[in-house]
Every structure is written in structure tokens, then in C-alpha cells.
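May I ask for an example protein's residues together with how it folds?

___
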Amino acid sequence: MAALLPAPATAATVPDSLEQRIKACTACHAQQEKHDAFFPRIAGKPAGYLYNQLLNFREGRRQYPLMNYMVEHLPDDYLREIAAYFAAQHPAPPPAQPSGAGTAALARGRQLVLQGDPGKKIPACIACHGQQLAGAAPAIPGLLGLPRDYINAQLGAWKNGIRRAQAPDCMAQVAQRLSDADVGAVSAWLGTQVASAEARPAGSIALPLPLHCGGVPGSTAQVAP
């Protein structure tokens, strides 16, 4: 009697769900990012901010080949759906990063974040990103929980004109006023801070902002840039 042959394997059915499709995103932007990674923490950022960044990649204002390729043909509604998904995620905040920056550098970073530098027309980070640095709806991101090297690289990209946002690009103006040492100080101090597990983007932020930001609906400047 001939031996029975095993039945052919059937291909697994992959569900057509948003959770399945955004695995292309979480391959880099994992829900529990490591501080030694270069990729930013996007979970919990305001949906409007995430949508703006997807548009910036699609329209070439930001340059990262993998991101540009992934979104170049995606329609606006799908980008909004992706942004809303990540905005609704709130994983536990990562731990503080150890810093080799000296006491003076960390003090300078704290000053710039909490007070700014009026002499250089640099507004405090908290003036836009909120007292808890958790961001504000609809389009201002939180700053805590990001890798120090990522913050440093993005401020440098704005200084060098590599990263751009919708005009008027307020962050480009701020970055131009920061020295290289200031960029390192801000990045180092932010990296040593830990967000509260309960921190969420504020529902709104007081307007006008210190600078007019094209990506923030309704923003106007308090003073001339």
C-alpha cells in the first residue's frame, strides 16, 4: 500500500488591517524604542504633527530615502490614518540617557529649554512644546523620550537647511540662532530627562507662539523674527 503523501501546505492569510500594514513603520519606530537607536519615538505624538512629517517626507522637505520611498505614493487620507494610529499609542517612557556632557553644558541646555536666550532671540522650548515638553495638539511634538543623537542631528539638519518644514519654518529660524555648542547642550539635557508616564500632549497651547510656524494652524508670532 502506497504511503500517503502529506497534504500541501496552504499559504498563511495575512490580514489586511492597519496594524498589519504599519509593521513597515514599527520595524524602525518600535513601540519601545531603545536609546541607542537613531529612530525617533513617534508613538503618542499629536496626529497633526505626525501627518505634517509624513507630508514633508512625501513632498521632499525632509530627506531620508527609506521614508521618502515609503510615502511617495500614499494619499492624504491614508497618511492621516497612519498618524492617528500612532497618536493614540502611549507606551511607557524610556529611561534617561547617561550623558558625558559637563555641568556647564547641561546647565546651558536647561536654560535654553526652560528660559531661552533673549539676547540671541531664542525662545524657550517650553514656550511651544509645553511645560511638560509633551507637545500640544494639533501639531507640536513632545521632546522627551527622543534619542539624544536624533535631537542633535535634527537641529543640525535645520541649521544646515537639510530639514525643512512648511513656511514659515520657525524651527529653522531657532536652529540658525543656536551655536553648535548650544545644539549639543540642548540635546544632552533633554536626553537626561524622563517624561511622566501620564504625560500627554496638551489639548491646545497659548497663542500667539514666539514665532510664526507654518505647520501649526492659527499660529502667529509674538515678536518679529
Summary: The chain has a mean pLDDT of 88. The chain is about 40% helix and 0% strand.
